User: Fold this.
Amino acid sequence: MGILNVTPDSFSDGGRYAALDAALERARQIVAEGATIIDVGGQSTRPGAFAVDASVEIARVVPVIEGIAASCDVAISIDTSKPRVMQAGVAAGACIINDVYALREPGARAVAAESQVGVGLMHMQGEPRTMQDSPHYNDVVGEVLEFLEHERRACIEAGVASEAIAIDPGFGFGKNLEHNLTLLRELPRFAALQSPLLIGVSRKSVIGKILGKKVNDRLYGGLGLTALAVANGARIIRTHDVGPTVDAVRSVSAVLQGSVP
Ligand code: 7PJ
Assistant:
């Protein structure tokens, strides 16, 4: 899953793809590098980010989704927590809703159920503006697992097909270094749930804290964590660095399957 941010303030590529032409060029590159999903987001969820209005988000993402749908052979996911944006994104051609808020916004599950799209349910403690202030868990793995199982069940009860759901422990979303490391080490417990496991570690601060490296120097660290995650059962990898990630995933998958994928 290649990341395409169309926000003026995203933390690693903020503003660069704000223009439609540049966004579509980047989308074609993401596909050429081997992604099978493009995740289009119109609102930053980095720590400290402020919310934007649904109409602003829609104006950012809809032209990009329409352009990708018209020119690329790739599944499009809309990265949003707002039901109105989900609806507009699906109408424009998205077939997956990726929600860091796990469809908890009133009306979100209904949109997912009615539109029969795939959904990514992510765990977050708190909200983006304050989530990194003082994250606390008694049992991080147990609590994140319980949350994802609960939200998964709520989606199924709301009419979302069980096979349409992927789950994500939400690296960096209301988690300190120790929480993130514990979740990565214990990923097999998430992979044992019935839903495919989606993870995003690309360029995140967990890598920065391990290596003492800034956001643009975190590729190799991210590939290391990605290889471990795939060996531990992750099935969808959300990344800024598609080409290198595809090579890492294919290499690990060849070992796991005993044949070239
Ligand atoms: C994630 C996401 C993630 C899923 C972001 C960033 C922050 N969606 N959206 N999982 N992270 N499913 O890319 O660093 O980890 S935004």
Observations:
- Residues 54-71 form the longest helix (18 residues).
